[in-house]
Design goal:
With about 450 residues, the chain is mostly beta strands. The chain folds into two domains: about 160 residues, 3-Layer(aba) Sandwich (Rossmann fold); about 260 residues, 6 Propeller (Neuraminidase). Helix content is about 10%, strand content about 40%. The strands form seven sheets. A six-stranded mixed beta sheet has the order 1-6-5-4-2-3, with helices on one face. Strands 9-8-7-30 form a four-stranded antiparallel beta sheet, with no helix packed on it. The chain is globular, with a radius of gyration of 23 Å. The N terminus is likely disordered.
């Protein structure tokens, strides 16, 4: 299947119902990580039989997304009092939901392919979604969502995003994807995977070691390092055409690529006659633009700020590995990490307010978050084995990283940036070095 199918599937067609969400006089006070707003999500209402499995898949996607959001206390469906009622306003009463102390109620009505109320051609499936504030009986939102019939989980992602928008006033991040290193084939290959752990698609199939994927700003290309020709060389693949270009193949290391915000250049670490330094190259041809660092120990893991004016990296220039921030146009690098003797893999949040990195601690490797100047450090993980490879969500509210906390297998986890809500995304092991798609869904 085309590796870019998700790009087109994710373009959800949003159609307003006749009862569009009316103006709200309030917004529910919720914060990611608090998990203190009781939310109920009954199974979708079906206008006809025969589509239960697909409707349940839509429900599962929405349930997973809302669970990982950290905003809500998901109420166990076994405790729902109401049974077999409708989704539209007036087709049910709020009394049973008040009895279970529900605050946010999300109801769905699913239309299978071929249904005249959705798409008679059979190419798409639809769902009506309603978001209610139970204590007041107010409808916060009502919309119809339509996607290609082959990918019903995107209905669930769209509905979850609508719930987040309706209750917090901010857009949701569900339906986005990760580029990641996976070992499911027995080799380290590059894959893309849905944020919910579903829809895994191969980017490489070369049977070699492939590492450090990074997205282009438009989400149409991925850069990575591969040992397919014995030397760790850097490549870029156009996901639309499938064409792969060699960008950097000097003898020695060519690794940790990061696209500039405009997509025209790539920062990378490569070794030339000694320790690795940071270089800037043309993203299409690999032509050297300029060398960014020189001497003073190993410099690796460059990461652009969203405005392209600064670059974070890890360096051994002060003894041990520490995180630094440097103007891209030249100038002194400022040390950001202060404590610990081994801090690596810095990533700057899209809103440029925070920076995350990996630090070695007494219990292994942990994820740290601080203000961009290094102040107000928060340790997201502790006594949870090894936690590495952080990547920011497009809205700067979450981090995805790899963790070996469950039986030593490396799986992907998502955390709110205060660390209070952490949710496991994959369960098969062998997943490392995630990179989040740029931009909101």
């Amino acid at each position: 299947m085309n590796s870019l199918r998700w790009l087109f599937v994710a373009l959800l067609v949003l159609c307003s119902l006749s009862g569009e969400a009316r103006a709200q006089s309030f917004m529910i006070e919720v914060k990611p990580g608090a998990g203190d707003v009781p939310l109920a999500l009954p199974l979708p209402v079906l206008p006809s039989s025969g589509a239960e499995a697909i409707a349940n898949d839509v429900w599962d996607a929405a349930w997973t997304d809302l669970s990982m959001s950290g905003y809500f206390q998901m109420q166990d469906p076994k405790g729902y009092v109401e049974k077999g009622k409708g989704a539209e306003p007036g087709s049910f009463t709020f009394d049973p939901w008040k009895l279970t102390k529900t605050v946010v109620l999300v109801k769905m009505k699913f239309y299978p392919k071929g249904d005249a109320s959705c798409d008679s051609t059979g190419a798409k499936v639809c769902a009506d979604a309603f978001v209610y504030h139970v204590p007041t009986g107010q409808k916060l939102a009502g919309k119809k969502f339509k996607v290609e019939a082959a990918s019903p989980r995107y209905l669930g992602h769209a509905i979850a995003n609508q719930v987040i928008q309706s209750t917090t006033g901010s857009p949701g991040i569900f339906g986005t994807r990760l580029a990641v290193v996976g070992s499911k084939s027995g080799n380290k290959e590059i894959y893309t995977i849905g944020l919910d752990g579903h829809d895994v698609q191969a980017v490489t199939r070369n049977g070699a070691i492939n590492l450090s994927p990074g997205w282009s700003p438009d989400g149409k290309s991925i850069a990575w390092t591969s040992y397919k020709k014995a030397n760790p060389d850097l490549y870029v693949k156009d996901l639309v055409s499938g064409r792969t270009r060699t960008i950097s193949n000097v003898k020695g290391v060519n690794t940790s690529p990061d696209f500039s915000p405009d997509g025209s250049q790539l920062a990378l670490a490569r070794s030339v006659e000694g320790d690795s330094d940071l270089f800037l190259v043309d993203a299409r041809t690999g032509t050297l633009v300029r060398q960014l660092t020189q001497g003073g120990g190993i410099d690796v893991s460059p990461d652009f700020s969203a405005d392209g004016k600064q670059i974070a990296f890890a360096s051994e220039r002060s003894g041990g590995s520490q995180v630094y921030l440097m103007p891209i146009g030249g100038g002194d690098a400022k040390r950001i990490s202060i404590t610990g003797d081994f801090n690596i893999d810095p990533v700057i949040s899209p809103d440029q307010k925070k920076i995350a990195w990996v630090g070695r601690s007494e219990g292994g490797f942990d994820i740290y978050v601080a203000d961009l100047d290094g102040r107000n450090v928060v340790r997201l993980t502790q006594d949870m084995a090894d936690n590495e490879d952080p990547t920011w969500s497009p809205d700067s509210k979450y981090l995805v990283f790899s963790s070996t906390r469950n039986g030593g297998k490396s799986d992907l986890w998502i955390s709110t940036i205060d660390g209070r809500s952490q949710f496991k995304l994959t369960n098969t092991g062998g997943w490392t070095q995630p990179a989040w798609t740029p931009g909101m869904p």
